[in-house]
Amino acid sequence: MERLNDVTAFNHLTDKIQTDRSEHAYASAQEYKEALEAIRRNTGAERSRPQRTLEETNRSEEDLDAPDEVIPEPWELNNTARADIELLFFNRVPKVGSQTFMELLRRLAIKNQFGFHRDSVQRVETIRLAPANQQVLASVVTSHAPPASYIKHVCYTNFTRFGYPSPIYVNVVRDPVERVISWYYYVRAPWYYVERKQAFPDLPLPDPAWLKKDFETCVLSGDRECRYLEGETHEGIGDHRRQTLFFCGHEPQCTPFNSVEALQRAKRVVEQQYAVVGVLEDLNSTLLAFERYIPRFFTGALKMYWEELNTFNRINRNHFKLPVSEAVKQIVRANFTREIEFYEFCKQRLHLQLKALRDPSIILPTHKQTQSTHLYNNMV
């Protein structure tokens, strides 16, 4: 039997372990450390871990002695090794700069020599699929010869459930309120309807009064479109309030807006299945994590992005997007508590992945800072 490498061995051993408790779910850093050591002992993962030098061991112990944070090893956060096939699946969340990332991936495919594939433009984008359609999706994605990438707006899909090899899952998230504002003006942009009419000539034009309605008026007037009520469900890509849906999956329990169950399911899937979930507001950290944890596909991503910034910065800029006051944003945030919690969870995980590398050249933003946000002020 072929011997698994260290990272793969650990991930396979822990596949059957309950891992839905992340560090912040424990009462203290010490409790988290003890639980982590128990997992290692019970699975034999301690014997599979890479050997470290004395200097690395001492540095690791110093990190673990910190009272407020426990920093795992990179192999403990590396889900790339769980993949059964050298195939990157980007089930892109809309309005998170995903077209920018898609263009970056297309150029990296040429540089790093892997296949680039995406689904065709749909008249109606279906993101939550019935089991039979999930199976078709898994078949289509895995039909591409590796190494390859595939991009589609769709909920997280468990390929192994249908007997297909598991790909390398990646995605990106965005501040939930900024994301719904982005969507609000995206579907009202004139060029959006020009593109849609060109692709589907029989589509009806929207009501001019609806097109002219601004987001602040929509919120302050209590308009049905901008109320964002907890527990509501809405099928289709037209409802962008539920970022968690793209990670929770296709099950009915994932559809209610701002629900506890959807939040917990989404967190668990990210922890157990996704190699990296990037954060739009922190591009440097996102691209660096992509490079370090998925080098086969993302080597050179950071350099390519910044060297060709003008090109990427023009993708999907929306000059029809109006400014929204912080007061109105705060009103909306009050209804997005669990969506915001999920976003912060993904941001925390991203930064933890980079801290785990223990590379002194990596400088992470503080909790009050975000990087490159200005690049997306006018983006959809």
Automatic annotation (TrEMBL):
Transmembrane segments: none annotated. It is found in: Golgi apparatus membrane. GO terms for molecular function: sulfotransferase activity. Residues 39-67 are annotated as: Disordered. It comes from the Eukaryota. GO terms for cellular component: Golgi membrane. It holds the Pfam family Sulfotransfer_2. Residues 39-61 have a biased composition (Basic and acidic residues). Its main location: Golgi. SUPFAM superfamilies: P-loop containing nucleoside triphosphate hydrolases (SSF52540). It is a single-pass type II membrane protein. Keywords: Glycoprotein, Golgi apparatus, Membrane, Signal-anchor, Transferase, Transmembrane, Transmembrane helix. Belongs to the sulfotransferase 3 family. PANTHER family: HEPARAN SULFATE 2-O-SULFOTRANSFERASE, HEPARAN SULFATE 2-O-SULFOTRANSFERASE PIPE. This is Pipe. It comes from Danaus plexippus plexippus.
